[in-house]
Design brief:
- The protein has about 80 residues and is mainly α.
- The protein has a domain of about 25 residues.
- The protein contains 3 helices and no strands.
- It is extended.
- The relative contact order is 0.09.
Length: about 80
């Protein structure tokens, strides 16, 4: 699958793992920010790697759930 995607895109040498397009979205409300944060935090859960988001050691979900300290220093504003 990655080889097939790599062949289709001339910017690749052999394989493509990530999508190469992006567009910025302004997170102008707390609701939008919470939605994106929930999506990011739940990726390991959706992938079946952990039962709950705060169990993933490399996630800020630990800090938000007050279930411990994540590996990245957070500054809450």
């Amino acid at each position: 699958m990655m080889k097939r995607a790599g062949i289709k895109n001339l910017r690749n040498k052999d394989f493509q793992l990530w999508q190469q397009h992006n567009h910025s979205i302004e997170l102008s409300t707390n609701e939008m920010l919470d939605q994106r944060l929930d999506y990011t935090h739940n990726n390991p859960v959706d992938a079946g790697l952990v039962e709950e988001a705060h169990y993933w050691l490399h996630s800020s979900a630990r800090d938000y759930a007050e279930a411990g300290k994540g590996k990245i220093e957070l500054l809450f504003v």
